[in-house]
Fold these 4 entries.
Entry 1:
Amino acid sequence: MQTTLSLIQADVCSIGGHTKPSDSMLEGVRSRVREKTGNLLIDGIVTYTGDDIAIIMSHRHGTGATEVHRFAWNCFLAASQEASRQGLYGAGQDLLVDAPSGNVRGAGPAVAEIEFVRDPKSKDRPAEAFLVFAADKCSPGAYTFPLYTVFCDPMHNGGLLLSPKIHQGFTLTIIDMDHKAKDSDRVIRLPVPERAWDLACLLQNPDRFAIEAIHSRYKPDEQIVSAIALAALRGVSVEIVMPEHSDHAPIDWASRAQLGLLAPDIRAYLAPQPFSHAKLMTVDGAWCLIGTANWDVRSMRLNFEFNLECYTEALTAQVDRIIDSRIEAARRISSEALAKRPLPYRLRDASARLLLPYL
């Protein structure tokens, strides 16, 4: 199930001293969230940090959803009107426009959203746990030290030594907040513990560098499959081309089982001979990945292979043409067609999928 967690926060007024919103302001927003729970929202929580009201919502409308952002905006307007009625100072001070067009980004409120696929039947992640950091009058670098100690310092977090899952480490994405480009961010991805000292060097400057994301390195292949499925659910055009016959039949069987698990919006193709071991990927005509490593545990941890990321439109266009030529000669296959095959074939493929870490 595709699920989105949205946190939208704004300062619309407070009692004296900029300490907290009034109780009636908070209750007014909470009553609105209760009214929308079960239809617009799966559920929601209203809290505050300093004099900011924070609305935490789960829903199925994706990030930047107009209806969800407009609902939060209307909640803040109602709280502002209640503040005015009470004679409080600075009512609606974070609401910078009369009405936002689409989502509220740039209109005053702070926004943080994440999208994921929730699968109650998942052996590894039947539920998702969230810890929301909310703060007022500070920079994004305020969270740097606690996050660093939790994910990078075994003297602080003994689980880094004791848990086989988190002992495998993390990849931290660092954003350069001094980068001024309008259409792109400058980010740095560092694996820890291997580059923990390089990470510490950057994070010593919390006014410039902040942690944008932290990803576990446990079962990276499943994370990739989830990311591809989420992209398709958001409406991104996703095409996957695989060889119809590789150099190992069990790999072909396991691949069919993997394809059957993908979202129906993903277009999958089986390319004819000759078999190519190259791994190619492109995104939006601006980024490409070229290499030989598969996206599985064996290739990422045991095999001596590597892939190369390239941020160049010219090279990406060449790779796109190669992929398009393979698609022209390939045949499309759907998850529905895979599910209709005879039971012995499906059992064979599912059994091979269980052996993927060893193939």
Entry 2:
Amino acid sequence: MEKESINQVPPPFLVSYSITTKCNLMCKHCYSESVDQAAPDELSTEEAFRLMDDLSKWEISLLVIDGGEPLCREDMLDVVKYASSKGLRTTLGSNGTLIDEAMQASSQSLYRLTELMLKPMTHLGV
């Protein structure tokens, strides 16, 4: 029996990419095993771009980028912009606490943030 290549395997509807283990909060309810530092084996920006290339070729329907807190990564908007340029419908799983006016201004041309995330908020369960 021959091994199937990735091109022969139908794509999943959704791929969840935990881009970092770093988080600015330590919520009691969180399923993630997040810490206050990024893991040494996290993908670099270029490696994340190659992952976006592969997911695009596989024609997945939805990419969810989470973590940890994805906005702890300085290259987060670059990764989202690249994923979008490859035709990937991309969403972020974020606690929203790192979204400030500068983040709002730079992100609005890349993707839509929900009204909840654009307002100052208190994250419960810290």
Entry 3:
Amino acid sequence: MLPANGLLNDGFLRILSCHGSAAGGAASILLSNGTFRLAGETKLTFEVTRKRLLVALAAAALGLGGLALFFGVLLHGNADAPSDLRAQYLRRPGNAPPAVQAGVLAALRDFQQGYAKRDPKDIDPFMSRLFANDSDVLILGTDRSEWARGYSAASDFIRADWLGWGNLRLAVDDSIVSSYGDVAWIATVGTVHFKGYDRPVRLSAVLTRNGNRWLFRQVQFQWEGRAASPSSLLLRR
């Protein structure tokens, strides 16, 4: 075995040759500051030239580059849904009368503004303006374990989103709004911006009318596109 200090003290290793005899001759490795002798019974001959070293380094770099590209594709594979397909979702505006549509979109716009501002101090007035204060409120996140049922749980869910999720941007004005009496339901698309990439998302919701206000009863977030990549599993939702 080579002495460890011999390798550590030498700034650049050049293996010129290893030679020995079948009868137990010694092999030699020439370093910039000396030669080590190795005992061996098999004749070995090595020659590592600068060209071969560069080829090996280039191959390693290519391999690392391919690995980086692979994970880059995983990371960005879900980032963009075809624009024409997304447009098809929103071609039919829904059957809500104009007054209902205006009220529901006003609530959704307020919802979007809260997610854009992302200020935890605003969570109480945000919830009182937009959600019915009872146990029937339900928010479903993109993760299968994310069920927030009841006013308090919904408030905690949204506050956690503002603190730790990406930047949500919804296509509010292109939403599909339908209604029957004092119940309305809505669907739209958007994106969640994370550091370095965007991921398309869908949102659907059910609202009920309370006087002249439309209040959210159920909200569901859903990722668009393919199943979540390994990189996206590191994200909260």
Entry 4:
Amino acid sequence: MRVHGRHQPTLEQHRIFETEQGIGIGKGYALDQIADIIETSGCTDYWVSLGGDVIGRGTDESGKPWRILLDALHDISDKDAYVTLPADKRQTVATSTRMKRGGKGWHHLIDPRTGRPAKTLIESASVVAETGVLADVMAKCLVIAGDEAETFWQDHHQIAAFVQYTNRWEKYE
């Protein structure tokens, strides 16, 4: 088998695994790069959304901090449905979900422990962090962590997380 790239797959029990499994950070990385370009140009008030993940800094046209509405699968209070970004520094809100793709019975978040789509009661997780990459990775990790999400958050927490389980809504700070 010819391998391209920097990862060498291994064969274990008739399944192929990469030795260094990665987590997709494309949107988070792109948001960080776009924000760098915007700030380098001298702009201090902006927000950018890529596929629902948002990075921002400053205030809106009325001078109020940016408010980002979370996509809620369950009933939540209006207060908890929004993330308000601070005016004086950059922050990102990234969401990861286990929504099924293309009508298939599986989703795209792979549990590195099994090499298969994660089995989890978490429908989605939104994370607020200082960088897009960090928010993107943390949101995916929370969904994959499943029942261990709260413990994972306590060990690796960022600014805030909003986790939607199949039957409830949790906010971690």
